[in-house]
Amino acid sequence: MSAITDLQQLTNEQLAALAAEKVMGWRVRRETFQEDQDMHFGTGHETTFTDWVDSTGTFQMSVTDYMPCTDRNQSGRLLAKMVERGVSFLITRCVEGDPLGEDIEVSIPNHHGYCVTKSDARAETIASLLAWFAMEKQ
Predict the structure, then answer these.
(1) How far separated are the first and last CA of the chain, in Å rounded?
(2) Model confidence over 39-58: pLDDT tens digits?
(3) Global model pTM greater than 0.85
């Protein structure tokens, strides 16, 4: 199986977690707070927050809010992060015989390129991850 096929088989949630960790360099932070008194429950209860934080521990986004496969702003940040590392992305038609399709051509320095079919947020997330994995192998 190819790297593209492997990534395409992952769920949006799995791709989001990989992108956050690999491309953005974030890690998960879970914090549990003990409430002393609660208006609704009468006694204290625990509340747990699961967030993405950067290398300094600074909050970036809630894990449940980070969905680059469906959010073009978030997938665009992934592409921008990889452009900073020298990767170029081109929206083009790189699949022969697909007159209506737009695809993402990924060009990685000192490496062969990739063509990711479609040009939606999920495709941008996959393109960013392909570039990250290829650059890590160098």
Answers:
(1) 20
(2) 566 566 677 889 999 999 99
(3) no
